[in-house]
UniProtKB/TrEMBL annotation:
PANTHER family: FAST LEU-RICH DOMAIN-CONTAINING, LD45607P
MF terms in GO: RNA binding
Superkingdom assignment: Eukaryota
Name recorded for this polypeptide: FAST kinase leucine-rich domain-containing protein
InterPro entries referenced in this protein's UniProt entry, alphabetically: FAST_kinase
Species for this entry: Noctiluca scintillans (Sea sparkle)
GO terms for biological process, alphabetical: chloroplast rRNA processing; mitochondrial RNA processing; regulation of mitochondrial mRNA stability
GO cellular component terms attached to this protein's record: chloroplast; mitochondrial matrix; ribonucleoprotein granule
Length: 319
């Protein structure tokens, strides 16, 4: 009898503890504007809070997965509207990249959207906590969205300050994305700190390339192009090394890689050598059908800097 009473007492206490634990767990409660499940926490009084986007939260992993799998810019903004207060740095980077994928070149149109303003505000708040991958993702996304560097000087300078702290810890991919974005945006900081960031970015980029035994065509072309766009570049011997590595990789270059590289060589005013130009001509003939109008225009101007007519490249005379 005593054993039974003891057993029942333990069982009762266990049930009470389990009940209290369950009350503190998030509950699946409703769905957001996209039909995604929401988690609402019970209040300490035991009364559930009302179902609002500001109260509802989603597990971080689920939220990041949803942000990466959206099918439109509207879905990104809907998630921002419902869950912006739950965003951490990882969510922020994913949201910007997804938005740039579905709204490339539409930064001007997005500026009038209050939800996009919420995303920018969240970015400014989280910048001090951001790590290299998030920072590189935001740089890349702002470039793809075609952010206006003149109108967003303050934002870009804040991003540069946050990036400068972690620049030595950027991996090769992060550096390539960041320097490409800065080049694409034509970033030209007036402040000393901003200019120093660009100088340091170019130096770190060169260091990463020096230690990469097999740089990709994209890495080579993006780096050369960014050096030319930013009007900053490492020593000439290193540029020569990049051109030699590019020449070896020319058969694997895509049309955009070819146009960026040849434009950079012409802009940097370096002598690539006849062998390099001959190989570029061969690669251009092989892929000309895949060139966009813009890339073809760039190639025409770049070839012209070396006294080469693109029409002659494509349709060589019998002579």
């Amino acid at each position: 009898k005593l054993r039974m009473q003891s057993f029942l007492g333990v069982l009762t206490r266990s049930s009470m503890m389990w009940s209290l634990a369950v009350r503190r767990l998030p509950l699946l409660r409703g769905r957001d504007a996209l039909g995604l499940p929401l988690l609402v926490r019970r209040s300490t009084s035991g009364v559930d809070p009302p179902h609002h986007g500001k109260v509802a939260v989603m597990y971080p992993q689920i939220l990041n997965r949803r942000l990466s799998r959206v099918r439109s810019a509207e879905e990104v903004l809907a998630l921002v509207d419902s869950h912006s207060e739950s965003f951490d740095c990882i969510h922020l980077g994913t949201a910007f990249v997804s938005l740039s994928r579905h709204a490339a070149g539409q930064y001007f149109d997005l500026q009038g959207d209050p939800t996009f303003d919420v995303l920018l505000t969240r970015l400014r708040t989280l910048l001090p906590q951001a790590r290299p991958r998030t920072l590189a993702s935001v740089w890349f996304a702002l470039a793809k969205l075609q952010c206006d560097p003149e109108k967003e000087k303050e934002l870009l300078l804040q991003l540069a300050h946050a990036s400068a702290v972690h620049l030595p810890r950027f991996n090769h991919r992060d550096v390539t994305s960041t320097i490409w974005a800065c080049g694409y945006l034509g970033v030209a900081f007036e402040s000393k700190d901003g200019r120093q960031f660009l100088d340091d970015l170019v130096e770190v980029s060169a260091q990463k390339l020096r230690h990469d035994p097999n740089p990709s065509p994209l890495s080579l072309s993006n780096s050369l192009w960014a050096y030319a766009r930013l009007r900053r570049h490492p020593e000439r011997d290193f540029i020569r090394q990049l051109l030699d590595e590019s020449q070896e990789s020319l058969p694997n270059f895509q049309p955009r890689d070819l146009s960026q590289t040849l434009w950079a060589v012409a802009t940097l005013r370096c002598d690539p050598g006849k062998g390099f130009l001959d190989d570029v001509v061969t690669a251009t003939r092989r892929q000309m059908r895949d060139f966009s109008d813009n890339d073809a225009h760039i190639m025409r101007k770049a070839f012209g800097e070396f006294g080469i007519d693109l029409a002659e490249v494509l349709h060589p005379s019998d002579d």
